[in-house]
Amino acid sequence: MAHQILKALKDKGFRLTKVRKLIIEIFLSNSAAPISAVELKARLMAADADANKTTVYRELDFLSEQGIVVEVNAGDGKKRYELNRDGHHHHILCLRCSAVECVTVDNCTLQEELKRVDSKSFKITGHSLNFFGLCEECQ
Ligand SMILES: [Zn+2]
Ligand SMILES: [Zn+2]
Ligand SMILES: [Zn+2]
Q: What is the per-residue pLDDT for 115?
């Protein structure tokens, strides 16, 4: 998968810097939990990459523009990012430590239900649903 993403970027003529490759690997190895820019920076530092805040934000902007990562709203106002993988899903937030996990839904029917409550002034094109509770460590 990392290979496919990198190849697609290369084919479009973008440079594959060490930091860019690492970020994609971090997202891939972390595919069930969105991470914030701060967490991403910490992971890059742990991997010995020379990444300052500006680099991290610039890379996140770039990867978002390319449709590789998407912003996740987990309901606590913090910005987190995850790979733009196939498959609609929801998120769960730990109220104590702010950990966020992806929740896979086999058959989300919300979109269908929303059609029935479609407002006159809005055309609903999507939804996000957040659960909250306590993670394993915080229980
Ligand atoms: Zn927790
Ligand atoms: Zn997710
Ligand atoms: Zn849904």
A: 77
Mean pLDDT of 113-135: 83
**Number of residues assigned to the chain:** 139
97 belongs to a structural domain: yes
Ligand nearest to the CA of 106: 3
Query: Band of the pLDDT at 95, cuts 50, 70, 90?
Result: very high
Shortest-distance ligand to the CA of residue 73: 2
25 and 69 share a domain? yes
Asked if 61 and 119 sit in the same domain, the reply is: no
Whether residue 97 contacts residue 132, with contact meaning beta carbons closer than 8 Å, is answered with no
The two three-digit tokens of residue 10, written as one number: 């290369």
Q: Which domain holds residue 28?
A: 2-83
Contact 63, 23 (CB under 8 A): yes
Q: What global pTM score does this model have?
A: 0.85
Q: How many domains does the chain have?
A: 2
Interval between CA 87 and ligand 3 midpoint (Å): 10
Q: Does residue 139 belong to any structural domain of this protein?
A: no
